[in-house]
Amino acid sequence: MSTLSARVPELAALELLLAVVRLGSVGRAAAEIGVTQPAASARIRSMERRLGVALLERSPRGSRPAEAGTLVAGWAAQVIEAAQALDAGVGALRERRDGRLRVVASLTVAEYLMPGWLLALHRARPGTAVTLRTANSSAVAEQVLAGTADLGFVEGTHTPAGLSGTVVAADRLVVVVSPGHPWARRRGEVTPGELAATSLALRERGSGTREVLDRALAAFGGVSAPVLELASTTALKAAAASGAVPVVLSELAVADEVTTGRLVAVPVADLDLRRPLRAVWPLGQRPAGPARDLLSLTRRARRTDAHTDVRPARSDRAGRAERDR
């Protein structure tokens, strides 16, 4: 503790002194502030000991400021005024912070999870203005680190360097093809080596989808040169539906197409394509205001929701293959 802080009374003591000077009585000042008279008297005496001067002249008719008390009260008024200005300024900053939320999210999270989360946030904080940007996971991390987003959401196997994070949802990559593609009618599962040797249509490097697939196939020779690299989930689904090429995407992204039969999910043997979806923020900081509330909502949703597994049962695929022969 510095010498200055050891001598300067607390704000509550200065406010009490100003009330005594204004009202002419420790008792009346104590009642106004909401403490007992003995507690107020003890606070004044403690302040006098700290400052090393007498502040009040006491008599049966009340208390009046001593010469030193008058001077200290004048300075105390300036300190209280400055403290009130500080409190008002911090309050304005807090209101501005709590009135907006800047979110940047990977495509999968932004398109398939974020709408529900933001609707829940709107119900909880109807006055919050939310800005949502989309980027691949690498760019999300860059924006959060640069301070241009309050909260980010990434896909991938780890939390990016310089950030803290928490898992908010589980996801899995699936291989999808058109119903007319040869893989849609085969009896057995595609092997990891076969998938690695096949030219696919893929997300661009830097995306969480590509990172997970690259890691999963690294032991099998790595991903072959892709037919297409696209930053659009919609464009990749269109490429798969065209029948020309298999595509690897989040099961969240293809659930509707697989359910309606526009795409077929192809099982891959002995290949772990699961991945966590994370909320991230700068290391050493804690989400505050609406960012904290959104994070809480994602955790609540994770406890209550379970997304659809789009992988067909092997018996269903075998039966379909038998019918097609």
Automatic annotation (TrEMBL):
Basic and acidic residues bias: start-end ranges: 303-325
Pfam families: HTH_1 (PF00126), LysR_substrate (PF03466)
Ranges for domain HTH lysR-type: 9-66
Keywords per UniProt: DNA-binding, Transcription, Transcription regulation
InterPro entries referenced in this protein's UniProt entry, alphabetically: LysR_HTH_N, LysR_subst-bd, WH-like_DNA-bd_sf, WH_DNA-bd_sf
Signal peptide start-end: none
Domain of life: Bacteria
Cell membrane in keyword set: no
GO molecular function terms listed in the Swiss-Prot or TrEMBL record: DNA-binding transcription factor activity; transcription cis-regulatory region binding
Region feature (Disordered): 292-325
Keyword DNA-binding assigned: yes
Family according to the record: Belongs to the LysR transcriptional regulatory family.
Protein name: Transcriptional regulator
